[in-house]
Write a sequence for this structure.
């Protein structure tokens, strides 16, 4: 079959990223031709500033070397400007007269600098700041001339000024507006930034309008005249007064443009469905994005349509800004200007050079603007994107994420101050240097890519904030993870919530049914989505949906925990952490009989037998004769207790009995993640109920119930839910909370993350304010658990495939004459 | 010359699941069954840290190692990019619902590779 022809006009980051996404999902669909006006392969335009400042070289910022185009069979025309599109004959015509036909055309022509219409703009020594040629011209000028003027005190202008200053020029920034970066910063932050740059030797003319550029002998610019009549000497003038989408080619072809080439949510031009546009040249819902993350998102969506999958919609992006001037920390996102109905939280320390402003509207963070201390930029940006209510953390909001429970590794919160050899990811042993190198060498832009390539942040995730910071200042200033909803995995665009909702509303009962109905890309899903979908089915439709053991992680299939050498650990259930001589004797006998190498007491008041061979598991279970402890499952683990009023001279309540009752009521309960409970008999809280999913604390007049604590990766103190009088109430309230979590939680979301996502108020409204609803939740939980088998004894009912415990025998080796 | 020998029926292996074939010498061989009746055979050892692949979650064309979630291709034994590494494959075919392996290959191939061991270690 003859391949269709795809032509890309514009060999830059957005266009080439789209091709990369397309090649991933449909490598053989198109014969691809690329036209680029510059003589270079695709490079990282964001990193031109470090090149100008002498911190990186041009070679280092190449993203796709020429060999990449060759390897993927792409015809590349560099230094070839496309002049015309013939939409009738479906051909593009280049300036050198060459022509190329297309079936699909992708426009990624980017933007062009805005050149002030002042006399002298054509003089030698007057340039814009857009590409490698401009950068080289500036580097060259810096070696031969003394004075530079940058017109425009925005992001680009300041980076240019900094680079030229670093190369030894005397630089003056002429800025029309009343303060620097007026679209990203408020006046206070703008002035702080100006002070910091002045301290480095850059001069400023703020609120000054350029009137003309004055030629010297030989026709080169020699000065900039301002409207007040004053003159600033200039051998080099850099125009950085803004950019505009480069739409000339599209407009000439009759494609509708309005502040960019107008595209739909599928990135198709609204004029011609064969023609797509991505990147800075495209106007989506009236916005032309100039930052890298939105362009990449557009590229991804566009690729799925080019690949004829017809899925994916681009819904716009939220963006944040960071200045790439080494040593100056600046971050801004969202709407940071105050106003009516808005509340501002401000921290200002002019002497220390720190200014932080958070803007809140309707209990949500809508903007952040920071100079000097930007550690929490990624965190604020996340809050802003998610639109999470902030009243519960408002008093600590200004002090950053580390003040709400996340201490980070070794207390590190500032990746920039860490040495290259310092470890960022403690799970996988990845250093800062290794991550930065991977980001640079492999051209990584997203957290997901860093995880795949380096494994950093891929296990427990507690170093995610640090990795995001590294991405910000290694890959470019505007790293921003913009998708408003996160896809469940690579098999679908749908989020966990989408899938949960569809399973309920469409009454889906099987995994295949879900994949079929929701258009999964893979025939059998993957190791991420299968366990999640299986859980959603059985938790939504108890007794109707059938559990699928092959979609469970090995631990839940073998009902034991796999260890690093492939052997298993066995933890029997000890109700409330109490045991007997008889149980201990059976355990001891089993340890001897099966030669179990390690016996350990766990933190959950149980006994762990480590190093059991898989084939021995059924025998160990039978000999011990105790119920499954589910220590291997996303399910109720332990109910930890103190001895309580029965023995303790301080005890006010019988916590051990309460714990046993809770455990007997809740065991065999599968959940989105593991669930741990504790019951203490008095406020001294020896059972550590404050860091459990449900923590119950006995007081003289009854029981306090705390929820959503966690003693794991990040220590999270449980939040007070309510106080009740009787043991029966403890069961009902705790059970109702856990059933809510089971019905609404996303797979692998612990209670703390679930409650943070929906808000404790929502949980309280459903559990405390709605007695009938609480009762119904508790009833549904009991219905789900009633008759659930113990997988260590009721193999058939629990669908335990006993074949897994027996290896097949290999045939004997060949013998002579066989 | 292959010496094809029946080791089990296709139906002895769960759909989207695996069985282990114990060998006299060397690590076991894992048999993987796809959603239909296709069967692949790999050494039961992840190229990363030696995890038992037979215990992983099986998808259309790969298995996720239970230890650190590397995905290993069932047909070629190769780790999915950007991970690198390869586990030895074994010849395997299905006839009349029976799974056949090459007895000579089972007896002689990949005998030098060890299983993962417990004990403290540094990241490799």
């Amino acid at each position: 079959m003859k391949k269709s022809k795809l032509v890309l006009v514009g060999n830059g980051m957005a266009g080439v990223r789209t091709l990369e996404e397309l090649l991933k999902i449909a490598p053989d669909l198109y014969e691809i031709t690329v036209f680029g006006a510059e003589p270079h392969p695709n490079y990282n335009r964001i990193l031109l500033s470090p090149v100008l400042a002498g911190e990186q070289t041009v070679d280092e910022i190449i993203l796709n070397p020429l060999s990449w185009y060759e390897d993927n069979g792409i015809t590349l025309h560099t230094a070839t400007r496309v002049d015309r599109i013939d939409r009738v004959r479906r051909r593009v015509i280049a300036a050198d007269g060459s022509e190329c036909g297309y079936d699909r055309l992708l426009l990624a022509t980017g933007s062009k600098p805005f050149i002030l219409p002042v006399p002298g703009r054509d003089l030698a020594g007057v340039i814009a700041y857009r590409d490698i040629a401009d950068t080289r011209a500036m580097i060259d000028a810096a070696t031969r001339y003394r004075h530079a003027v940058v017109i425009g005190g925005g992001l680009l202008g300041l980076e240019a000024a900094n680079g030229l200053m670093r190369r030894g020029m005397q630089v003056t920034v002429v800025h029309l507006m009343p303060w620097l970066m007026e679209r990203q910063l408020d006046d206070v932050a703008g002035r702080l930034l100006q002070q910091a740059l002045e301290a480095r030797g850059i001069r400023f003319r703020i609120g000054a309008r350029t009137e003309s550029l004055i030629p010297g002998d030989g026709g080169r610019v020699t000065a900039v005249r301002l409207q007040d009549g004053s003159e600033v000497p200039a051998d080099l003038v850099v125009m950085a007064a803004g950019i505009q989408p480069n739409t000339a080619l599209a407009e000439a072809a009759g494609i509708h443009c309005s502040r960019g080439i107008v595209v739909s949510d599928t990135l198709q031009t609204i004029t011609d469905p064969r023609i797509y546009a991505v990147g800075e040249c495209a106007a989506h819902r009236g916005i032309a994005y100039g930052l890298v993350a939105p362009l990449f998102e557009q590229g991804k969506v566009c690729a799925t349509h080019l690949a004829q999958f017809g899925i994916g919609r681009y819904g716009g992006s939220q963006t944040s800004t960071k200045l790439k001037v080494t040593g100056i920390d600046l971050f801004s996102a969202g709407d940071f200007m105050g106003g009516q109905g808005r509340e501002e939280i401000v921290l200002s320390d002019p002497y220390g050079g720190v200014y932080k402003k958070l803007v809140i509207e309707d209990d949500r963070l809508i903007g952040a603007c920071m100079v000097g201390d930007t550690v929490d930029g990624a965190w604020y940006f996340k809050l802003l994107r998610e639109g999470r209510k902030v009243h519960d953390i408002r008093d600590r909001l200004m002090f950053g994420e580390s003040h709400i429970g996340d201490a980070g590794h070794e207390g590190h919160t500032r990746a920039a101050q860490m040495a290259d050899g310092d470890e960022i990811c403690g799970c996988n042993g990845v250093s800062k240097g290794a991550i930065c190198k991977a980001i640079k060498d492999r051209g990584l832009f997203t957290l997901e890519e860093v995880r795949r390539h380096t494994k950093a942040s891929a296990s427990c995730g507690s170093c995610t904030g640090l990795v995001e910071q590294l991405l910000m200042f290694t890959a470019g200033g505007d790293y921003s993870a913009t998708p408003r909803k996160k896809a469940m995995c690579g098999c679908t665009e749908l989020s966990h919530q989408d899938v949960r909702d569809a399973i309920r509303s469409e009454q889906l009962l099987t995994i295949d049914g879900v994949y079929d109905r929701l258009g999964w890309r893979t025939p059998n899903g993957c190791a991420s989505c299968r366990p999640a979908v299986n859980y959603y089915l059985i938790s939504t439709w108890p007794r109707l949906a059938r559990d699928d053991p092959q979609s469970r992680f090995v631990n839940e299939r073998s009902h034991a925990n796999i260890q690093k050498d492939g052997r298993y650990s066995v933890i029997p259930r000890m109700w409330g952490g109490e045991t007997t001589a008889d149980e201990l004797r059976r355990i001891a006998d089993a340890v001897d009989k099966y030669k179990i190498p390690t016996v350990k007491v766990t933190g959950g008041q149980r006994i762990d037998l480590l190093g059991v061979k898989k084939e021995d598991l059924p025998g160990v279970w039978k000999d011990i004769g105790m119920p499954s402890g589910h220590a291997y499952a996303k399910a109720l683990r332990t109910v930890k207790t103190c001895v309580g009023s029965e023995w303790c001279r301080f005890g006010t309540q019988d916590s051990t009995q309460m714990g046993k009752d809770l455990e007997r009521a809740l065991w065999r309960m599968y959940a989105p993640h593991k669930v741990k409970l504790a019951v203490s008999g008095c406020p001294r809280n020896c059972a550590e109920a404050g860091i459990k999913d449900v923590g119950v604390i006995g007081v003289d007049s009854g029981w306090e119930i705390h929820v959503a604590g966690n003693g794991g990766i990040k220590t999270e103190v449980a939040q007070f839910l309510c106080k009740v009088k009787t043991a029966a109430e403890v069961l009902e309230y705790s059970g109702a909370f856990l059933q809510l979590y089971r019905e609404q939680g996303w797979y692998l979301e612990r209670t703390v993350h679930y409650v943070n996502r929906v808000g404790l108020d929502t949980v309280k409204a459903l559990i405390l304010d709605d007695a009938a609803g609480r009762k119904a939740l508790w009833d549904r939980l009991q219905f789900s658990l009633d008759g659930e088998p113990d997988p260590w004894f009721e193999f058939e009912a629990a669908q335990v495939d006993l074949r897994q415990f027996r290896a097949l025998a290999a045939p004997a080796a060949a013998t002579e004459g066989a | 010359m292959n010496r094809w020998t029946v080791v089990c029926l296709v139906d002895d292996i769960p759909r989207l699941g695996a069985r282990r074939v114990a060998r006299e010498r060397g690590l076991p061989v894992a048999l993987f069954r796809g959603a239909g009746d296709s069967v692949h055979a790999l050494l039961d050892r992840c190229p990363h840290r030696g995890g038992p692949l037979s215990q992983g979650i099986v998808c259309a064309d790969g298995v996720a190692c239970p230890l650190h979630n590397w995905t290993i291709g069932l047909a070629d034994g190769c780790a999915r990019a950007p991970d690198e590494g390869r586990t030895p494959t074994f010849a395997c075919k299905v006839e009349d619902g029976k799974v056949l392996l090459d007895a000579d290959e089972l007896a002689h191939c990949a005998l030098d590779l060890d299983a993962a061991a417990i004990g403290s270690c540094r990241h490799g």
Remarks:
- Residues 103-108 of chain B form the longest helix (6 residues).
- The mean pLDDT of chain B is 90.
- Chain B has one domain: 4-108.
- Residues 71 and 112 of chain B are 23 Å apart (CA to CA).
